[in-house]
Amino acid sequence: MNRVKITVLKTTLDKELAAEYGADGLTACPMLREGQTFYADYAKPEGLCDEAWKAIYQYVFALAHGAGEGLFYYGDWIKQPGVAICSCNDGLRPVIFKLEATGEPSEIDYTPIR
């Protein structure tokens, strides 16, 4: 298993939907910032939003296990091998992530309990 680089590409706010449904003063995601990076493989990196992790972990897992050697799906989504562009599930202020296979082996940083 290899590590996957997670980069925050963009934090967004759908102003139209936020005006209709959002709480007063709603802004783009306050937890993450553009350009922020994380590395992951089997577990959520420290500091990454739990909800964002739930939305992207399956792509991280696939890239960590070699799915990045080719194009995702049928080559009709992302043109770069080893890359996925995903977002969190917040419909009013989604955060857009770039996931990249690194080829760097992951290391277990805990002792498994048996």
Automatic annotation (TrEMBL):
<protein>
    <submittedName>
        <fullName>TIGR04076 family protein</fullName>
    </submittedName>
</protein>
<dbReference type="InterPro" id="IPR023811">
    <property type="entry name" value="CHP04076"/>
</dbReference>
